[in-house]
Amino acid sequence: MNILALLQPIQNSVSKTTLRQLSRIIFAMIAMTGRVTMLGLSRWTEKGGSYRTVQRFFYTVIPWAQVFWAFFREHLLDDQDTYLLAGDECVVTKARDQTHGLDYFFSSLMQKAIPGLSFFTLAVVSIKQRRSYPVRVEQMIRTEAEKAASQSRKQAQKAQKDAPKKKRGRPKGSRNKNKTVVELNPELQRIQKMLQSFLNNIQGSLHLTYLILDGHFGNHPAFHMVRQCQLHLISKLRYDAALHFPYSGPSPKRGPRPRLGEQVDVLSIPEEYLKETKVEDGFETRTYQMQLLHKDFPDPLNVVILLRTNLATKAWANVILFSSDLERPYDKLIEYYGLRFQIEMG
Q1: pLDDT of residue 183
Q2: Which of 19, 68, 204, 241 is most buried, taking the most CB atoms under 10 A from its CB?
Q3: Of the residues 38, 62, 86, which one is the last residue of a structural domain?
Q4: Does residue 20 belong to any structural domain of this protein?
């Protein structure tokens, strides 16, 4: 009965039968041990939760986006809290060839493409409670046209490696590209559609400013996709990203004024950009913040560089975080990106 009471906010999204089935399945999932299967669930449910009932439930079409949001709004939303929006892809291994959406996806855990299923999750992250609450989950399914295009790109890259090297410099007759005009790939189009649908669903009842994504989305197309949704992106660049200070030299006598100045060397960043230094357990961590330019981004970026050095061996490594919000201080950017990992445990 307590579970049924908690499920009352979603009664307008599902039928009474589905609500009753869900209450029994939730009880079984909390109580059971071992692998979660439909047969296993039926063995742990009380009266009214037979194997056929569990099967019927999983064949029922449920508007999960409405269910997640209604439950969060009623039981978890705190008007005094500040929330972030985080996104992440999850790849699940799957054998056989009859599963819908089965394809090869890159797994960060195995560091290679594996056969399985891919799901993209949007979660609301509470800054006060430091917890994430999934609000939308969709399976990522590539079309045959996407697979063919991906295969042709691989073949083109292989042919380019085998081709003789081109001369250095810019090809004669080439023209500048307008970097403000970006064509989103199918993956970003699916995520943007998912994001816009969620923002329309909440209808202003929750104010969101930032979308936090991992380093896979540390590029200009993803930056453009997020800004089109009226959100600021917080993500990570490659450790060796070619960042530049804005050009501050004299204007040339001929031609336009250069946009990119000196390239950033993480080992010799001017002290004026140093925000914090910490020494702990034999490691020194220096934190820098500055507005920098990247040749692929038409707009300046709010960049935070963390340089960690082993004081004994002098070995070092660095992390580069960035945001489209130029006013956000370094400590908040680090905190917000760190909260993204709550989606891994949500």
Answers
A1: 84
A2: 68
A3: 62
A4: yes
Query: Which has the closest alpha carbon to 179: 321, 260, 294, 301?
Result: 294
Name the nearest CA neighbour of 135 among 204, 199, 216, 59. 199
129 and 343 in contact (C-beta within 8 Å)? no
pLDDT of residue 152: 82
DSSP 231: -
Residue-number span of the structural domain to which 293 is assigned: 237-327
For the ranges 171-180, 194-203, 242-251, the lowest mean pLDDT is seen at: 171-180
Cite the beta strand spans of 220-272 per DSSP E.
Answer: 232-237, 243-246, 260-263
Q: Is 333 helix (H, G, I), strand (E, B) or coil?
A: helix
Residue with tokens 């949500």: 346
Angstrom distances, CA of residue 120 to CA of 91, 160, 200, 213, 304 = 9, 32, 18, 11, 27
**Cβ-proximal residues to 184 (8 Å cutoff; 6+ apart), any chain:** 192, 221, 224, 225
Task: Name the domain count of the chain.
Answer: 2
Q: Could you tell me where the DSSP H helices lie in 32-97?
A: 38-44, 51-59, 64-75
Residue with tokens 């560089």: 305
pLDDT in tens, 86-110: 999 888 888 777 778 888 888 877 8
What confidence score (pLDDT) does residue 1 get? 55
Cβ contact 48:16 at 8 Å: no
Over range 302-321, report the average pLDDT: 95
In a domain, 152, yes or no: no
Q: Which is higher by pLDDT, 346 or 335?
A: 335
CA distance 309 to 317: 7
How many beta carbons lie within 10 A of that of residue 214, not counting itself?
17
- Which helix (H) or strand (E) segment holds residue 114: the answer is strand 112-126
- The tens digit of pLDDT for each residue in 158-182 reads 777 777 777 777 777 777 777 777 8
DSSP strand pairing (83-93 vs 283-294): unpaired
Which residue blocks in 126-242 are alpha helix, DSSP H? Answer: 144-162, 186-202, 220-228
Query: Is residue 283 a part of any domain in this protein?
Result: yes
Whether the pLDDT of residue 344 is over 80: the answer is: no
